[in-house]
Amino acid sequence: MMKGSLKSAMEEIASAIKANKDYLTDLDREIGDADHGINMARGFDAVMAKLNSAEPADLSSGLRQVALTLISTVGGASGPLYGTAFLRAGKTVRQGDMLNPKLALSMFRAAVDGVEERGKAEEGDKTMVDALEPAYRAFEDTLKSGGDFPECLEAARDAAKKGVEYTKTIPAKKGRASYLGERSIGHQDPGATSVWIILNALLQYAQKIHKEQ
Amino acid sequence: MVGLVIVSHSEKIAEGVRDLAKQIAGEAVRIEAAGGVADHKIGTDALRIEHAIRLADTGDGAVVLLDLGSAVLSTETALEFLDDARRGRVLIADAPLVEGTMTAAICASTGASLKEVVSAAKEACNANKL
Question: How far is it, in rounded angstroms, from Cα A36 to Cα A192?
Fold first, then answer.
């Protein structure tokens, strides 16, 4: 069992997204509609406002709240995609469950499945999935070889970063960038990039709570 | 009677298409507009769509007509919030928004089934203007 709370984890994510707002928007300007950073920052601001107004009863209902808030405030495709990720992660948590690495693994899987199903995307399409799938595999491998929670997240974060680099080498097959076809090669995917930023924020959170134990 | 939900990135488009369809098919058909996001901004909101589906479906089901891109994503997300029974009687029409809504509304006004209404919408894909 680990200390910490959903609220402090989300705080870490929200401040990382805010710090990278212009970066994400600039990436999106190259191959999209120049709003990814703005949309994500608005969404996570709303999430923090929600969590600050009333601390959720447990992890499961808290994740549902995060999902609903993202869905109704992010706009564009990222709202339903990230919303579905948090919603599905929340559905794998039973009432009263506390976060542990094994539970985190099944939450992670459910979130990735949700994004793939919702976006009808797979690896190689130049989307969030190109960061999520390798990150999930790295998390799983590290957990299996006895890694603790921060080690699992560090491996996941590093794999996501590699996935982000990979998106520069391929043409987009989904979303607005797909209209650019081969011209999207050379640009990194903003969605994959925000996945990497979120995993890095979760790593910071995990390292903090790990130290406190 | 089968109801309709109009999903557009623009609140005004959704409301305009709804008004036009009501003019053509009459007031009896439930047609709900679910356009835009909070503060009248452009975008689609799954929770707004979910609410519209609940209003449009009075037991015989509802057909969702939509515009572009993430309208599909948001509508499919909305479906995730419905219970299995209701989700089973909501269909997304693979049809042009304006023409599809008109043919679907007219078909629904005759008391047609869910399947008939969704295929009426789809037939609008073949409608030539000239």
Answer: 11
- Residue A67 belongs to some domain of the structure: yes
Dihedral, A195, A196, A202, A205 alpha carbons, nearest 10: -140
A1 within a domain of the structure (yes/no): no
Of the residues A71, A88, A117, A120, the best mutation for testing chain B's interface (the one with the most B CB atoms within 10 Å of its CB) is A71
Task: Measure the CA–CA gap between B78 and A150, rounded to whole angstroms.
Answer: 34
Quote the percentage of chain B above a pLDDT of 90.
Answer: 88
Convert the pLDDT of each residue in A34-57 to its tens digit: 999 999 999 999 999 999 998 898
User: What's the number of domains chain A is made of?
Assistant: 1
Q: Residues near A96 by Cβ (< 8 Å), separated by ≥ 6?
A: A58
Q: Which domain holds residue A188?
A: 6-212
Which tokens hold the place of B31? 């047609």
Distance from the B26 Cα atom to the nearest Cα atom in chain A, whole angstroms: 32
Residue with tokens 């572009």: B68
